Amino acid sequence: MSEKPLAILKSRLDERGYDKLSRINNGLLHQFVADYIKLCNPDEIFVSTGSSEDLEYIREKAIKNGEEERLSITGHTVHFDNYHDQGRDKEHTGILVPEGVELGPAIKTKPRDEALKEIHEIMKGIMVGKELYISFYCLGPADSRFSIPAIQLTDSSYVAHSENILYRQGYGEFVKRGPEATFYKFVHSQGELDGRRTSKNLGKRRIYIDPEDNIVYSANTQYGGNTIGLKKLAMRLAINQGSMQGWLTEHMLVMGVHGPEGRVTYFTGAFPSLCGKTSTAMLEGETIVGDDIAYLRKVNDEVRAVNVEKGMFGIIQGINSKDDPIQWKSLHSPGEIILSNVLITEDENAHWIEKDDDVPPKGHNHSGEWHIGKKDEKGKEITCSHPNARFTIALELCENLDPKLDAPEGVVIGAIVYGGRDSDTWVPVEEALDWEHGIITKGASLESETTAATLGKEGIRVFNPMSNLDFLSIPIGRYIQNNLDFGKDLNKTPRIFSVNYFLKDENANFLNEKTDKKVWYKWMELRVNDGVEAIETPTGRVPKYGDLKKLFGDVLGKDYPKSDYEEQFMIRVPENLAKIDRIKEIYGTRVSDTPQVVFKVLEEQRAKLLGARERFGNYISPDKFAR
Ligand code: SPV
Ligand code: MN
């Protein structure tokens, strides 16, 4: 007979560690931990209950073992990933599917049996000479119907430290739920390290998601998007679970937008990586609930959302004192912050792309010792920080934190926003005609020019429905249908909007300043509360010039000339028609289970655009549609 899990744990853990694990009355949990201790074979094991003492232990270990270095500001540290491990590895990330299951050509899958064999082979003995950290978390607020407990095994103190900043501790939930607990499981190993303490065997980098067992495996990588189990890895498990249970897991920020007389309307917003999601969630004057992942449920015929996380793993590129004053302040105040892949100078200060002040001439960064002009092995100039360099911070350190972060029932959602990197098609802000129109022509039609958040070439327009394509673990058509169904039978359906922060003129200059988005959110808040009228165009409802002019004055103290409005909000018929062609082509060829209504709604939009072109030409001022 095989050894009992508790006996294995007793033989491998010290007394305190064993005590902590055996206090959780859950045989499946013990079995899981015992299995992976046996397989990975760490030298030491530390169990964290999330007590301040345990959190301190992990923080200190990250410094002692060289995964992080202290910086000049108290509490700040820096971590480096391998030069070639700076983004999510889409190529080697796969959903494990049993024989006969198809998720369609746009979702990366691996045959389950084969992949399990491969990853177990890779992980055999992978933690020899290392310490294993075992931590417990709760995805979502404590005592909430939204929430899911999770356990992480990792040999990286940086990963455990990051999770302690980003997620709510869950040891108590495990103890409380006992044998009832169903939970997500994450096993990560950074594998062998090089002299700079970064993962060495990138050829064997693998991230495998197994929805059948709710386990995710990650090996030979350190970059957060590949390793922080609770983040994008858990998201794939939750999308699958939500699909079976009638709720949604979305790549969305959650924020409170503050209207007149103290009114707060909660928004969610989906944006692909590096498209302004965190800076939107951190807009001055509004309050943040979350910046990356939300669970949405229908409760009493309303849409409610919680932030799965309690911290941010945000992009640091471009943060400066003018455009991002709140983040700027947090990044210059003492507190627990991990920076990753930025430039560190001799006096232990951090610098990043487009920070205030000049780039220091030298320092060390994700490429090792660095100086201005340094080139990599392909002759490409290495920027001072990586474009996907990040900061990890608890939301409680942000002065704009919304008081409802931990509300077990979440917040009622009044609006859902979709936006991507789009230089020439969508207007800066537009309301969908209704739920179905919004889900199809905005969410399901989202495209974005690629960025540094994933490995590969930047600047190519790609299809990214709801900005969630990278994380889907169910067929795209089913996911779109789930979204369509979600809006049915509601008391007050959230309004759906699109935004475009990246519209350019013919000389490739941005048509808007970064801070203009403050106005778009105030306008949307008024729309949700019937405080302002709009103009119905073939693509949706756009603001009236006078309303924006007033808001630009009130919110930004800025004039808003009519010529700016005309240029930004003209309906670009050829570009919109071309987009419909692209999207229809994708849903016709790369998605095998597209709901028919997608084609119908896109065709209706095409017909409206063609009708408008007949009357007014290719580029049409919104005023032409005003009644
Ligand atoms: C994103 O890229 O969307 C992120 C960071 O939020 S990652 O953890 O890499 O997914
Ligand atoms: Mn994200």
Task: Describe, in plain words, how this protein is organized in 3D.
- Strands 1, 4, 5, 6, 7, 8, 9, 10 and 11 form a nine-stranded mixed beta sheet that branches. Strands 12, 13, 14, 15, 16, 17, 25, 26 and 29 form a nine-stranded mixed beta sheet that branches.
- Helix 1 (5-12) runs antiparallel to helix 2 and helix 4 (52-64) packs across helix 6.
- The chain has three domains: 3-67 and 92-245, Phosphoenolpyruvate Carboxykinase, domain 1 (3-Layer(aba) Sandwich), CATH 3.40.449.10; 249-310 and 405-625, Phosphoenolpyruvate Carboxykinase, domain 3 (Alpha-Beta Complex); 313-397, Phosphoenolpyruvate Carboxykinase, domain 2 (Beta Complex), CATH 2.170.8.
- It is 31% helix and 23% strand.
- The protein is globular, with a radius of gyration of 24 Å.
- By secondary structure, the chain is α+β, with helices and mostly antiparallel strands.
- The model has no long low-confidence stretch (mean pLDDT 96).
- Strand 2 and strand 3 form a beta hairpin.
- Bound molecules: sulfopyruvate (SPV) and manganese (II) ion (MN).
- Residues 251, 273, 292 line the site of manganese (II) ion.
